[in-house]
Amino acid sequence: MTMTTIWAIGLLVTLVVFVPLAVYRLHDLWRTARSIEIYARESLNAAQGIASHTQHIQALDATIAVATDVLASAGSIAARLDTLATTLADRTRS
Fold first, then answer.
1. In angstroms, rounded to a whole number, what is the distance separating the alpha carbons of residues 25 and 77?
2. What's the pTM?
3. 11-29 per-position pLDDT tens digit
4. CA 5, CA 18: separation in Å to the nearest integer?
């Protein structure tokens, strides 16, 4: 076998085997990169949705704080009304 024949066989093997394999692998890598890009975009949309919905938590915390104050005031008013009712009941008996 001459050097030219060996070189031609090597070139043929490269063109027939390695080039299609490299093209296939590059295409596979491109599809994987596209999938990652799509999943990243979907994750970003989901994260933005979560962030927009969690802003209401602060409003709920403020509502709970106000409701706690209202409940404390209502308890105080109920105690005073109880005292007033007891006092009026005692005066009507006397």
1. 78
2. 0.50
3. 999 999 999 999 999 999 9
4. 19
